[in-house]
Amino acid sequence: MYNRILLKLSGESLMGAKGYGIDEERLSQYAEQIKQIADMGVQVGIVIGGGNIFRGLSGAQKGFDRVKGDQMGMLATVINALALSSALEAIGQKVRVLTAVRMEPIGEFYSKAKAIRLLNKGNVVILAAGTGNPYFTTDTGSSLRAIEIEAEVMLKGTRVDGIYTADPEKDPTATKFEEITYDEVIRRGLKVMDLTATVMCKENGMPIYVFNMDVPGNLLRVMRGEQIGTLVKP
Fold first, then answer.
1. What average pLDDT does the structure give for the chain?
2. Whole-angstrom Cα distance, residue 211 to residue 161?
3. For the chain, which terminal residue's Cβ has fewer other Cβ atoms within 10 angstroms, N or C?
4. Cα 55 from Cα 211, distance rounded (Å)
5. Which contiguous run of DSSP H or E holds residue 202?
6. pTM of the prediction?
7. Distance CA 111, CA 174 (A)
8. Contacts 24+ apart (CB under 8 A), 92-95
9. C-alpha angle with apex 29: 23 to 32, nearest 5 degrees?
10. Does the structure show a pLDDT above 70 at 60?
């Protein structure tokens, strides 16, 4: 079992059965899974995307200024962070939201020292607003935060149960990897994370574990060492 993890959640997954926004049932499921492992003593940092509300790159393609579009995306991640923190608080889990851009009292301004101090006190720490800079995705933000808070692994919770040779939702012949190297992910052009995030993890030796977070209980299974996803390693 890991002692400290960085859990990356996609904003799209929060939509659940809805076409936009936040599905309250999915949010509750996520909160329950996170509290389950926090109760075991696992220190949990979380980065959550904002694609269920607004995606900066998509906005830029539709005529938005890229910097403003990315800033809108950062704000979307803060909305999701507040929703998840509220769901965790509702079931008795201590949680704090730290933001990469100042927006007190909505969230506290992020620093590595503050994040680690809160983790050591048993708080789930949600790290919102990406890196605080345009042109960086929340994948890159999660890689950066995982390295900064000295997590043992970055868990990428998605709606797919690992990494495949091709998109399994489009190609029925796609086969799943149990393990794969960073270099092979890059060479094959697999869409695990964006290239910047993958290279950052590679250069800092941060393992990535990709699994299906949408199946209740899967986060606990990962903590127990069950092979349900794909490990990316050197």
1. 94
2. 5
3. C
4. 22
5. helix 195-203
6. 0.94
7. 41
8. 92/35, 93/31, 93/34, 93/35, 93/38, 93/124, 94/121, 94/122, 94/123, 94/124, 95/123, 95/124, 95/125, 95/126
9. 140
10. no
